[in-house]
Amino acid sequence: MSAAPPDAHAITRASKSNLALAFIALPRVRRDDITVFYAWCRVIDDIADDPGQPVAARRAGLDLWKQALEHPVADESALAAPVRALRAKYRLGTEHFREIIAGVEMDLAAVSYATWDDLRLYCYRVASAVGLVSIEIFGYHDPGCKTYAVELGLALQLTNILRDVGQDFANGGRIYLPAEDLARFGYTATDLAAGRRSDAFLALMRFETERALSFYRSAAAALPPADRRSMVAAEIMRAIYGRLLGRMQRDGFHVLTRRYSLSRLEKIALILTTTLRCRFGG
Q: Are 40 and 29 contacting, i.e. CB atoms less than 8 angstroms apart?
């Protein structure tokens, strides 16, 4: 019987996420354990993004989870006990879990970021902190893997932001790209609202793409050879999202009118080739 509760598997399947797809390369026990953690991440994100609830109710839901990480509380989610058991099994502190909650709380306000440093904090919380918990579950050997997790998280989240520029603005006027970068290239919120794919927009997207690519390169350089096998799921994510970013770049960033994705066949091919590379080198 699976160690992950049925609710966790259901949440993971419903997400249709690239991250969930990458878990297939893991041994059964670690796959079940990461499924519990991923389901928790989805639940936290869904609480913060629930348009049917006022902001105060969403904050209350997140506050309840802050308590449930530590001990049983009234009206807690069915996922709470499995998450506490996961923490105990891997001796996980609450700091990264609380960082993730703090990250989704940043989405409760009108979203805009003045500088890259501001956006970097958000990316660290919602992606790098996820990676830092994940590598504990994957079972790393070299402490250098923590740098890998942080850099890869920044790369993946920036890729998400670039892919979803149009969709995020339609969802409450969210602009994740730093205001200083928009100003640098002469692109405005008014341009974004009008869906203008201008030269300024393309220059902005190329600039942010290079930033994301620099984090992909840093992550690749930071991955300790001893952890290539244990980080197979993370490396699958690097392959899938790196391919996705390259596709947007080659296609000229039509992100205001379409949502880029890879076909299931492409993903399967990347899973197979990445798994082989992690196991046998190359």
A: no
